[in-house]
Amino acid sequence: MNSLEVHTNGFAWRSAISVLLFIALWEIAARVHVAPAVLLPPFSIVADQLWHSTLDGTLVADLSLSLARAFCGLALATAGGVVVGLLMARNRVMEWIFDPLVALGFPSPKIAFIPIFILWFGIESLSKILLVTFACIFPVIIGTYSAARAVSRQFVWSALSLGSSPSSVFLHVILPACYPRIFTTFRIAVPVGLITTFTAEMVAGGGGMGATLIYSQRFFESPTVFAYIVVMLVVGLLVDAAMRRFQSRFLNWAEE
User: Fold this and answer.
1) Which of 151, 186, 185, 143 is nearest to 171 (CA)?
2) Does residue 28 sit in the same domain as residue 55?
3) pTM for this structure?
4) 14 and 132 housed in the same domain
5) Domain membership of residue 12 as a residue range
6) Are the CB atoms for 170 and 90 separated by under 8 Å?
7) Tens-place pLDDT, residues 50-84
């Protein structure tokens, strides 16, 4: 077992111990009534509610809907952002057109646009998907633009000197060189997409994790509220772990 595996196993054990300790403190604090049960239900009751919500299919349906909305929006943002970012990096006219729009849209509070998206596209999935696209496309554009501008000119000149066409250089030199940074940008965009989806569902309804969480809060169903929050946290953790595993397996050549 090498040092990397030892470090990874040690980190996993520390993480597990920290989570178990937090759960134990949560259970004890709730049982001794540090706060009313409606504000802090015991973890055991939350886990029981989570189990029942899974068995009756409510949680699975809500989670599936929210993830479908989030990843549809992320797919659109990635496709559009990569194209725009590459065009900006390789074409001065495209950079002149899009750079002010990106500078204006990137720091804007995306949640403030929820009423507009609801008015234009309704409260169902389309408005959430397009809002996620709007929230995530700007970091993808910036990351792709930076990656394309950072490609060594020597690689491009070498390919051209060997007879490669500009389109071939773009597809086989510039774009592959951008993959690691684009994927890193995508890792940043994923939690933004999930947060945007859950928040839009909380505000606009239309089903999903966020809508059920707010509905439960209105009727003081605290175990359901905490169960859904736990699921949201676990989903974010699992998605990021899956992306890190993908990166270490398929893009580890970038570190070399």
Assistant:
1) 151
2) no
3) 0.83
4) no
5) 1-32
6) yes
7) 999 999 889 999 999 999 999 999 999 999 999 99
